[in-house]
Design a protein that fits this description.
By secondary structure, this protein is mostly beta strands. The protein is about 10% helix and about 35% strand.
C-alpha cells in the first residue's frame, strides 16, 4: 500500500526525498530516447530517470547532484520516444521546468519581490506539438503549467512519440523533466 501511495504522489508531482518513479504502467520507460540536440549535462535520457526535480548534493547523503532534465541548446527543439513494438497509450504526461530552484516569495514588500518572476515562469514550455508516428495528436499554445496530462482517444497506437517544442515563456531553451505514457 505504501509503495503504491508513494508512486501515486510522485505521478501527481509530489517530491519525496530520495524516491523516484517506478511506475510499472509507464511504457515510456521501455522506449529509447533521442533529441535533436542536448545541452551539456542535460541528456534526453534524463526524462526517463524517474526524478522531476533538480537535486542538490547539499540535501543529504542520498542526493547525487544532477539536473534530471533534458535541455535543448535552442528553439525550436524536439525529443522523441521510440518503441520496438507499437504502443497504445491512453495518457501522456509531460513535466516541464518552472524554475523551482528560484525562491518564490509571497509578500506585499516590493523590495523583496523585485527579483520574483510574476506570471508564467520563463523556463516553462509554452507552445508545443505532440505527434505519434508523424501524425499530430495535439497542438498546445499558451501553456504555463508545470505538469500536463493529455488523455488520448481509445485505439491510438504507434511506435514513435515526438514532442516538438516551439516556444517557452521567455527562456531560450526547452527544458523537460519527464515524459510518461500510460
Amino acid at each position: 500500500f505504501v509503495t503504491r501511495l508513494q508512486q501515486t504522489l510522485l505521478r501527481d508531482d509530489a517530491f519525496l526525498l530520495g524516491l523516484g518513479s517506478e511506475d510499472a504502467d509507464d511504457v515510456a520507460r521501455r522506449a529509447s530516447v533521442r533529441a535533436n540536440a542536448e545541452s551539456e549535462g542535460t541528456p534526453a535520457l534524463a526524462v526517463l530517470n524517474g526524478y522531476t526535480r533538480k537535486i542538490d548534493a547539499a540535501w543529504g547523503p542520498w542526493a547525487k547532484e544532477t539536473a534530471n532534465y533534458w535541455e535543448s541548446p535552442g528553439l525550436p527543439a524536439w525529443i522523441e520516444l521510440e518503441w520496438e513494438e507499437p504502443q497504445s497509450p491512453h495518457e501522456i504526461q509531460l513535466t516541464f521546468c518552472t524554475g523551482l530552484e528560484r525562491e518564490l516569495i509571497l509578500t506585499p514588500s516590493e523590495k523583496l519581490t523585485k527579483k520574483t518572476v510574476r506570471g508564467p515562469q520563463p523556463e516553462t514550455v509554452r507552445d508545443y506539438n505532440l505527434l505519434l508516428d508523424g501524425k499530430v495528436l495535439l497542438e498546445v499554445r499558451g501553456n504555463y503549467l508545470r505538469q500536463r496530462r493529455h488523455v488520448l482517444p481509445a485505439g491510438i497506437q504507434g511506435k514513435r512519440l515526438h514532442l516538438e517544442v516551439l516556444a517557452t515563456n521567455g527562456h531560450p531553451c526547452a527544458r523537460l523533466f519527464e515524459i510518461r505514457c500510460r
